[in-house]
Amino acid sequence: MTPGELVNAALLGAAVLAVLGLGLLMVRARRIRSRGTERDETADSVALAEVRAELARALADAREGEGRLEGSRRELVAWISHDLRTPLAGIRAMAEALEDGMAPDPGRYYRQLRGQVDQLTGMVDDLFELSRIHAGALRLSWETVSLYDLISDAVAELAPVAAAKQLDLSFEGESGLTIVADPRELSRVVGNLVMNAIQHSTPGSPIVVSATRYDAGRAAISVQDTAGGIADADLARVFEAGWRASGPRTPSESGLPSGGAGLGLAIVQGIVAAHHGQVSVRNTTDGCRFEVLLPVSTAGAA
């Protein structure tokens, strides 16, 4: 073989080797791409499974919340029906006794009739207020108010009710503390919280209402009783409309105001939210502490 033929043979061999190497590289590249695609598909499948699981959990939570709301609605209707029927039955019986001349003490019957009518009026007012809150139709009249004066007046109005139950109702306020709020609605917040404490407290026990500066931009109103705590499972439902605990915190007292239709704390939460504040409840050593945080400035007024 001549030198030229040797060179050609070498070039030919190199070309064949190059082609074979290129082929091998292409095959390897395809395998790598195939593996990458498989990994991508696997990653996509895992991500899709996670999304499906998240959607399933969200759907389950939504169904659970819907069921809870439906349960609360039914409870609310049942309680309101019961609370309306009871005073109406009493009013009818007393009216019939007066009409037939069978009332032994007509003056007492008239006073009881007035009390039952006041109770029904309060219940209708609560329903109307809650309806406005849920419809977003609650309109506030913003004013700069003295928190000390407002709470002093609200506590003074309920002092006779507390005294009738021999409760030690007191107010510890920080004088000079003012906030921008609707005084009528804020008085209702304080009144509902104090009335809730009165209803659950036993004779002789203290109820302490306080108003302090919480931080630079907020004021705190608290109502603390010693009526026993609320079951941990019930704490999250305290502000639901129509909710009532499965068991009373304390035995009810005959002749004293009942627990109503379970709307008072739901109204508190709605009014506080309209003031851009927060309301919370927690158990203490021997009772409960409700706390309302409200902004003191006009930033939230709108």
What characterizes the major β-sheet? 5 strands, mixed
User: What is the overall shape?
Assistant: elongated
Please state the average pLDDT score: 83
How many H/I helices? 6
Please report the distance between the alpha carbons of the first and last residues.
103 Å
What gyration radius follows from the Cα positions, in whole Å? 36 Å
What share of the residues does DSSP label as strand, in percent? 5-15%
- Count every beta strand, where a strand is a DSSP E run of 2 or more residues: 7
Q: Structural class, judged by helices and strands?
A: alpha+beta
Helix content: 55-70%
How are helices and strands ordered from N to C? HHEHEEHEEHHEE
Strand order in space, largest sheet:
2-4-5-7-6
**Sequence stretches where pLDDT stays below 50 over 5 or more residues:** 253-259
Topology:
Layout: H1 3-99, H2 106-134, E1 143-146, H3 147-164, E2 168-173, E3 178-181, H4 183-200, E4 206-213, E5 218-225, H5 232-235, H6 264-274, E6 278-283, E7 288-295
Parallel strand pairs: 2-4
Antiparallel strand pairs: 1-3, 4-5, 5-7, 6-7
Helix pairs in contact: 1-2, 2-6, 3-4, 4-6
Question: How would you characterize the overall build of this protein?
Answer:
The structure is a single chain. The chain is 59% helix and 15% strand. By secondary structure, the chain is α+β, with helices and mostly antiparallel strands. The strands form two sheets. Strands 2-4-5-7-6 form a five-stranded mixed sheet. The protein is elongated. Residues 253-259 have low confidence and may be disordered.
